Amino acid sequence: MQRDTVALAEAIARGETTAAELLQLALKQSERTQPTTNAMSTLMEREARAQLARLGAGPFTGVPFLIKDCAQDYAGLPTAYGSKALAGNVAAEHAHVVRRYLEAGLVIFGKTNLPELALKGVSDSRAFGRVSNPWNAAHTPGGSSGGAAAAVAAGVVPMAAGNDGGGSIRIPAACCGLFGLKPSRGLVSSGPGFGEYWFGASCEGVISRSVRDTALALDIIAGAEPGDPFLVDEPGVVFANAVKRDPPRLRIGVTTASPIGTEVHAEAKLAVENAVKLLQGLGHEVEEAAPDIDGAALATSFLHIYFGQVAALVTEARAKGAKREEFELLTRVLATLGGAISAGALTTQLLKWNGFARALARFHARYDLLLTPTLAHPPIRHGQGDPTTAEQTLLDMLDRAGLLGLLARWGLLDGMIEKIARDSLQYVPFTQAANLTGTPAMSVPLHWTADGLPLGVQFVGRLGDEARLLQLARQLEQAQPWFDRLPEWVTQS
């Protein structure tokens, strides 16, 4: 796709092309790139052609689009969450966000790949196979919306749906040279299947090649639905119009220190240093500063929620007939550890979210935005950071013997749990704060490494201040364009 979603919709409206022609182009590009990326988990060509027969007059009418195989239910099709255990999980109705995409005229022709239950910052499910980064197939495109990012970076579509519970929009956007915005908590409905995903830590959004695409998509999907747990005020601004104006002079605090004390790669630091120079050249004030948040405590709180949610999902799936052995080893281990967490311990960790949010609000009283690396490391190679074979064997043995939960309750696995936590977050320690505090955050593709891999930078804004983030992103996009920067093999005919 050589144009963004807005431009393609305009071309259809002018009669320069048709929705059917664009769908055929997207299907052809998907077929060509799928053997390399494995971005798609489910092809929905029949459903897409049926949509063509009843297209409405929405702002994106006729443009091909992809949804993520996680929480984004499409009536009559399974929402498998990247898992063999959930392959029969057929949706009775559209998720509200999917319905809104369809009402906007988008033509949904497939679902994108992800890690099982959207649990990791890489996309390597056993059910559908691992996803590869279009910039270098030996590397991950990130996760959990890795398939969405790989499809966009491979030129299949200019924009695809994702969701973000700990960085799952921003991480793959950073890995694939794309723009990814995580909206504020509650701005987009999680219904009707959920009130809140992950106690409100997770939300819906898109990964795109242009800021104006994301802005218009947010206009479409923002707003509460009947039955939502909270009545969220309407944004009070049209995001598609807001991005047409530059932001005022901003005061931005910047840090490259990992909040959990792990190493930050020199390229990640360089990405931020270059972003600072660009921001200063645009007239913004940037200085070293960070929120007064205990990063280790925040990571511990996040992981308690993470473990607990996995346990609940697996329990629910098994109640519907799924077999425990159908889940991957890591999922089984996390479910067992989550089941060993008491209600009191989980509640204690949830109560800490208020402290994190207040601390970040105090930071935002002085600074408009926080700038950090999105990732602490360039996109990692497949398998990098996975448990060793010996560790996997031990975990599998303990799990099958029913000893894992018992040992966890006795506190005898604390060292192993800490290692799993550290290994899982060492490459992505910067993104979880926005999820637990509910604030909006974005990854902007401003850096490519010496090896030619993308590496985005992250901006975190005040609660409800998506317009300010989008305005800055558009200003950066104009100052240092990235839209036409795609992997060479992708653009070859």
Task: Point out poorly predicted stretches.
Answer: none
- End-to-end span in angstroms? 12 Å
Main sheet, how many strands, which sense, barrel? Answer: 8 strands, mixed
Mean pLDDT figure: 94
Query: Total strand count, please?
Result: 13
Radius of gyration from the alpha-carbon trace, in angstroms: 21 Å
What share of the residues lie within helices? 40-55%
The number of helical runs is 18
Instruction: Determine the structural class based on helices, strands and strand pairing.
Output: alpha+beta
The shape, in one word, is globular
Strand content bin: 5-15%
Please state how the strands of the largest beta sheet are arranged side by side. 6-8-7-12-13-11-9-10
Describe this protein with a few key phrases.
alpha+beta; eight-stranded mixed β-sheet; 18 helices; 493 residues; three-stranded mixed β-sheet
How would you sum up this structure, described in words?
This protein is α+β, with helices and mostly antiparallel strands. The chain has 18 helices and 13 strands. It has helices at residues 5-13, 19-37, 45-52, 96-103, 146-153, 170-176, 211-221, 239-242, 266-281, 295-319, 329-339, 343-366, 389-400, 404-409, 414-425, 432-437, 466-479, 488-491, and strands at residues 40-43, 64-68, 107-112, 124-125, 129-130, 159-164, 179-182, 203-208, 251-254, 285-288, 369-373, 441-444, 457-460. Strands 6-8-7-12-13-11-9-10 form an eight-stranded mixed sheet, sandwiched between helices. Strands 1-3-2 form a three-stranded mixed sheet. A two-stranded antiparallel sheet has the order 4-5. It is globular.
